[in-house]
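hey so i finally got around to running both of the ones u sent me last week. sorry it took forever, my laptop kept dying halfway thru and i had to restart like 3 times lol. anyway pasting them below in the order u listed, first the sequence line then the structure token line for each. didnt double check formatting much so if smth looks off just lmk and ill redo it

first one:
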Amino acid sequence: MSKVWVRLLLFFFGLPAVLLVAMWDWGYHFPLTVVAIVISGLGAGETAALLRTKGLDLNPYLPYGLGMVFPFLAFLENARWLTSDQSLILMALVMVVVFVRQIFANTEENLQPVLSKVTGILFTLVYPGFFVYWILKINSLPEAWLLMPIYLMATIGNDAGAWTLGSLFGKGSPKPFLVSPSKSIIGFVGGIGSTFGVLVIAFFVVPHHLLGSSLPMVLGLALVLSLTTIAGDLFESSLKRSARVKDSGDVIPGRGGVLDSIDSLLFSAPLFYLFLQYGRF
């Protein structure tokens, strides 16, 4: 089966399954939280694998655990078992442990790579876990069972729109980014149009002014989410290009690794949450 058909099957069957899990409002959205924590851990493992191609000697197991820290703290906050200040303290303690454990290097050979090792460990802590944290924070808001599917459709729809329009009409279109030479301007237009379409439809269809009552604000949100969604995709492409690999992994048929499937979601999550908190009028 070609990758095109695999991607289409994932979109038409996998996406509805993801949306159903996202709408399952049980136990502080526990099903989605479990999925997000596992995915974040796997994504951090893939990040570590990319870093190893540049010679960083990282523990083979530690990144998986570090990748789960931020989303797990988000769940504890959503369940009101922790405050955001307490989460910040715990995260500071995790970083202190990462720093302090390096002073116990007992040979010169172990001491030399400390700088690069700490940098790599902190990167696997933050990417993708820090951004998954903000995805899960959407679950702390009223009507999250509707807000989360809107967010997912706006970002995943961007990726799908870019791929569809780029595949059909992008061969002769300029391809402005070295980090992802297959992505065309036509594809970016398709992605941006998809995000605008999802949010404008949600603005008029979803009840109770869930995105606020100001259409210009929603259009501004659509522009910001479009650009950050594209930026998230391009950033992950830059990591793969630096590592000289095509995919971040081979977990998902037709998609590659976990990071290949969630990169578009990451950078837009904090801004969507910020809009929901302060931008709805």
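and the second one:
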Amino acid sequence: MKENACCLRLNSINSKNTTSTITPGGIELARQRTVFVCQSCGYKAPKWLGRCPDCGVWNSLVEELTEIGHQDKGRRHHPSDRPRRIDTVTMDKEIRHKTGLSEFDRTLGGGVVPGSLVLIGGDPGIGKSTLILQVVDRLAQQGLRTLYISGEESVQQIKLRAQRLSADSAELYLLTGTCLEDVMDGLDELAPRIIVVDSIQTIFTESLSSAPGSIGQVREVTSRLMNMAKSSNRALFLIGHVTKDGAIAGPKVLEHLVDTVLYFEGDGSQMYRILRSVKNRFGPTNEIGVFEMMDNGLAEVGNPSRIFLEDRANDVSGSVVISCMEGTRPLLVEIQALVCPSSLAIPRRTTIGVDPNRVNLLAAVLTRRGGLNLSDKDIFINVAGGIKIDEPAIDLGVISTVASSFLNKPIARNTVTFGEVGLSGEVRGVSHTETRLKEAVKLGFTRGVVSKKSIKPLKGKVYIELIGVSSIQDLLEVLFR
């Protein structure tokens, strides 16, 4: 063996899964161990397992190399701030950068906060890169230097999309690369105020030996980018891949690190897209922005309720309009139901836009408390427009439209309804009743069927006929008498 060899890799005596790097002088530099890490939750196992014992996901364990010993080498320890009394802390005036897209600003709570981390997830091809390129171009037009970092496309490919979107601001810079150290060098040289990373799963750091997109890489890269953004007061947008279940790929800690998590929802066959805020440290959660996919990019939809109701049929059974809340915004959507005899031993319950378990529960309540035998009927529920609703206020609408289809009696077109239904058949009130009804008045509805307890505080506040119901028996009598 030659004496001038730089180093030798020898099998460790203690473990067959551990290797050591030793210099010719016999000095041990580091030891590496092979572990299998769950890409869903981060669970570590010494050998491969078909199913993660922690989160229960199948085929999620991936082999990775981790260094043991010398873990603190090269790490810089920053002294923590001294404890301060809360009454001595002074607040700076919050400054937000308006993007010019009011629907996008709404989901962020009013605009982009300097030093914030925003994570955007969505299905492939839904329009994440298109949306963020439109946003940063508008910010660049305000004089804010912006850097778009792509690990998936070349600058020529980004330029092609930018031409279609008419994004040509002089303060918008492009950078392609996947190595975090190279990206940091570009950030130090340009010093941008707004940064976009598309996507976070493609960026890796040389300090870890695992593959790009692994749980360790994503966590380390995000942490270093977060420290950079917080210390320099720069706004950072991260675009993330999603799994087949619709969740953002990578460790769950990724969503805990960032300040805001946005999901871009929609069906590729439809032209409408919904940007939903599921976490926001600087504004309300569950806020939504509605966009329409056009040839030249995404356009804002100022009045989504009117869009969702524009194709509603006249005098058809199994259709009703409900008023739901998405964050602070009231939305009027149409719920459709089809009830027909079943040829199966177990009737089908198919839903689009609502929780199927909730529909099964409400069907049982309607059978037991309302006297409508649905045990041998197939029930199909659809929320028109592709929107998803998960609040209890949808209960009264589901009960109404199922009963309408079962009895083959249409509900008056000028009627809007909302409320929660309990297992004993009682109708309970929901929050923001006045806001929901005012939105209905704007769109021409003249009758509202709500919980009886919700009517008393509303006298003289809304110009609409209010009918209070306390049970589903009262509801059926009001709608179909």
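quick thing i noticed on the 2nd:
The chain has three domains: 8-68, 95-302, 307-480.
anyway thats it, ttyl
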